[in-house]
Amino acid sequence: MNTLSSYSPEGSLVTTTMSTAKTDLMKRALDGMNRNVAESPLTVREKVALTCRALFDAGHDSGLAGQITARAETPGTYYTQRLGLGFDEITAGNLLLVDEDLTVLQGEGMANPANRFHSWIYRARSDVRCIVHTHPFHVAALSMLEVPLVVSQMDIAPLYDDCAFLPEWPGVPVGNEEGEIISGALGDKKAILLAHHGHVVAGSSVEEACSLAMLIERGAKLQLAAMAAGTIAELPDRLAREAHDWTLTPKRSQANFAYYARRALAHHPDALTN
């Protein structure tokens, strides 16, 4: 039942929130999302497979480059795709279960050796449940300029002051040296732009990681277009932080992911094959 409006004695609809403070309206909205946005029935494997397909459709594929991982049930283990399979070929059933040394515990084939830096991030960040590392076109192009991501548009607010920058390319990330460098540069941020490389998103859930990966590519595309047109103006810090906190909530990420999952399943009905 809608409790925010009522009817006058004459039968006309009377609104009751037109003078309500913004903070109260935001709380009402958050309460509404908590009531109405349902938890996903999907397993972690299924969420990872759908993330691979959704990001493939969004232009995050670069041949066999990039990895998407998510913590598994046993500490020190995570799911990842098999080396040799593209994002558009990943299913819930062909994901590998590996340990921090990339030893395959379940599944066939081997993991991408570059997954090693994921192990470093998981060790450094107990809050991280899913890591997305891809080389989408606009992120890769921006990385070639050796400039950080500039968040100056409302849609990209979840990354405001939450995207680190590694200005020097450490080389192919298959050694422990690169893992230490990347995890250290990431710090406590949700994402990092890697010069001459791509990006890494470190999410508190698969849903959040997928959502932020979508946003960082859009942010890079907007930034390149804005830089070509003129000078990018900064967002007011207070309002940008408010927008960051408002848009980066678990329920927002769940709602975003549910949409991306529906869209991916429409194009890739085999993604949930076990």
Quick structural summary:
With 274 residues, the chain is an alpha+beta fold. Helices cover 40% and strands 15% of the residues.
Indicate how many domains the architecture comprises.
1
Structural class: alpha+beta
Q: Could you list the spans in which at least 5 consecutive residues all have pLDDT below 50?
A: none
Give the terminus-to-terminus CA distance. Answer: 41 Å
What is the share of helical residues? 25-40%
What is the CATH class name?
Alpha Beta
Largest sheet: 8 strands, mixed
Report the count of strand segments: 10
Strand order of the largest sheet: 6-5-4-3-7-10-9-8
Please provide the ordered H/E string of secondary-structure elements.
EEHHEEEEHEHEHEEHHH
Give me the Rg, rounded. 20 Å
Q: How would the global form be characterised?
A: globular
User: Beta-strand level of the residues, as a percent range?
Assistant: 5-15%
Second-tier CATH architecture? 3-Layer(aba) Sandwich
Key features of this structure:
globular; L-fuculose-1-phosphate Aldolase; 8 helices; 274 residues; two-stranded antiparallel ribbon
Describe the 3D structure.
- The protein is globular and about 70 Å long.
- It has helices at 22-36, 44-57, 116-124, 137-143, 176-186, 206-229, 237-247, 250-267; strands at residues 5-7, 13-15, 67-71, 77-80, 96-99, 104-106, 130-134, 163-166, 191-194, 198-203.
- Helices cover 40% and strands 15% of the residues.
- It has 8 helices and 10 strands.
- It has one domain (44-263): 3-Layer(aba) Sandwich (L-fuculose-1-phosphate Aldolase), CATH 3.40.225.10.
- The strands form 2 sheets. An 8-stranded mixed sheet has the order 6-5-4-3-7-10-9-8, sandwiched between helices. Strands 1-2 form a two-stranded antiparallel sheet.
- By secondary structure, it is of the alpha+beta class.
